[in-house]
Amino acid sequence: MEENKDFSTNKNTGEGFSEGAKSTAKEFKEGWNDMTHNSQNKKVLAGILAIFFGQLGIHKFVLGYQKEGLILLITTIVGYILMCVAVGVFVVAITGLIGLIEGIVYLTKTDEEFYHMYQVGKKPWF
User: Fold this and answer.
1) CA distance 24 to 16
2) Which of 78, 121, 66, 75 is nearest to 98 (CA)?
3) Which of 55, 126, 65 is nearest to 94 (CA)?
4) Which of 16, 43, 70, 89 would be 9's cystine partner, CB 3.0–4.6 Å?
5) How far is Cα 124 from Cα 117, in angstroms, rounded to an integer?
6) Is residue 76 situated within a structural domain?
């Protein structure tokens, strides 16, 4: 059986492996930070969530608007409860329409406009 004779690292200290691992970890961390803190990713995520789950206010929570997210969530729950009286149908339809409109607005904004309006300026509705 032949032994691997790669002597590029010091076997006693493992410095070559350690430096390579640190470099890879640093690259991963930078990529992760770019992906998770990039305004475009929040824009697309918030827009898609608003279109599909807008009545539940999930897109508001993603953008950090807890109060507005709770308003949509509670209104939708109350609407579903009131469906027995037929008023709930309108309430649920309105919250769904709000989510659809917000999703379209989010996705049609440029990255810069979205970032300044919704992440820096904290504009809660539309």
Assistant:
1) 12
2) 75
3) 55
4) 16
5) 9
6) yes
Residue with tokens 């430096």: 19
What does DSSP assign to residue 9? S
Q: Is residue 25 part of a domain?
A: no
Sign of CA dihedral 10, 13, 17, 18: negative
Q: Which domain holds residue 74?
A: 39-120
H or E element that contains 34: helix 15-37
Quick check: is 17 in a domain?
A: no
Band (pLDDT 50/70/90 cuts) for residue 7 is very low
* pTM score: 0.65
Examine residue 113 and state whether it is found in any structural domain, yes or no.
yes
Q: How far is residue 87's CA from residue 80's CA, in Å, rounded to a whole number?
A: 9
What is the tens place of the pLDDT at every residue in 69-106? 999 999 999 999 999 888 999 999 999 999 999 999 99
